[in-house]
Amino acid sequence: MILAVTPSWARDAARRAPPEPDRFTDRQILRGFLAVALGAEYSSAPSDRIRRFEGPVRVFVDAAGAPAELRPARLATVDDVVAEIGRGVAHLDIAGTPERASANLTVLVVTQRSLPAAVGAVFGRARAKDMLRRLEPQCVSGLSRDASQRILQAVVVLAADVSDFDFRDCAIEEILQALGPINDTAAVPWTMFNDAVRTGRFRRYDRYLLGLLYHPRMRAGLTRAEAAATARAVLPAVRAAVDGEAPGGPS
Cα dihedral sign for 203, 205, 206, 211? Predict the structure, then answer.
């Protein structure tokens, strides 16, 4: 199991993301992709290979643990985030499902007070206890994978009783990380995978990163060298998809 954690103290101290430049260089995009798609800070097994879903992603949202007065708004936000990700990532088939049994990505919406118990129930008490003591997170995601690094199941735990901005920011980041890019990086200022930055939106830079990860030529299990070569080869097509350019446009 690999975990992604956003500490509450990091979120409190984080700044709004800087404006994106008119155009990112290939080097800026590829550097960010390799930083988040490989490695993981909280992993129970080696993880320096590409990991991703290799089929449709179906998202079930369980908000029974959320305060009743917040539940409709939080459900609507998660639904909106899933739809936004689906629109923003070519070749990724992601959608909500009303059936828990058919889901391979489950989102649990709980209170801040009950979040530690929810995290412990999902990820194991011993591991969760150490992580929660050190980081005091507002949101957590984790995923399990097979020997080929294909994601089998993913879980996201979100605290409902935070500000609307914090909830949406957490939901976008953790759902994206549950899709595979679970490694945080402090080296890239435009990505929401940087704990020092808050975006509240699925911005263009992160669409490039997810577009690379879910391009048909990228596969679970690729090594760093293989992933780098594949990313360089498909980047023009990913740019075209994200920017709405015709294939063969400027790169």
Answer: positive
**Mean pLDDT score, 194-203:** 82
Q: Render the burial of 150-174: b for 16+ CB within 10 Å, e for the rest.
A: bbeebbbbbbbbbeeebbbbbbbbb
CATH 3.40.390.10 applies to domain 2-243 = yes
Alpha helical stretches, state H, 89-150 = 115-123, 125-135
Helix (H, G, I), strand (E, B), or coil: what is residue 77? helix
- Measured in residues, the chain has a length of 251
The average pLDDT across 213-227 equals 97
Reading the block at residue 104, the tokens are: 């391979």
Each domain of the chain, given as residue ranges in start order, spans 2-243
Per the structure block, which two tokens stand in for 98?
A: 């009303």
| Phi, psi dihedrals of residue 233, rounded to the nearest 5° | -70, -35
Cβ(189)–Cβ(198) under 8 Å?
no
- DSSP conformation class of 185: -
Question: pLDDT, tens digit, for every residue of 136-159?
Answer: 678 888 899 999 999 999 999 999
